[in-house]
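FIELD: query
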Amino acid sequence: MLKQIFINTNTKQWLNLEQFPGTKIMPLAKPVSQGSIHRLQMAAGTVIPIHSHPCDEYVYVLKGTIETGGRQCEQGSFWFTPANTQNGLHKAITDVELLTLRLGAMGVFEEIEM
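FIELD: result
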């Protein structure tokens, strides 16, 4: 029989994302093959360049203020980016924490030149 799985995110370890100094990730679940649900922290001033993913991505701002796609998003904001769509530039205005759901493989990170 299947059972519920619980994760205490207060004690789970954050992992540094070396590709983007000032960012940390906490994987939570894999809802679909190669997909992910995770928390992401960005220190104020951190920038993730414009890029795309080969999957749909849903993002909810848990705390802080982030600028993305030319819009300022604060705690409680939510955005959806369809697969293969320009995503970002993400700039943390304050320390930020996001909850992200990806419905498939993230793909290889490739910055989009503007």
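FIELD: remark
The beta strands are 15-16, 23-29, 36-42, 47-48, 57-63, 65-68, 71-74, 78-81, 90-92, 96-102.
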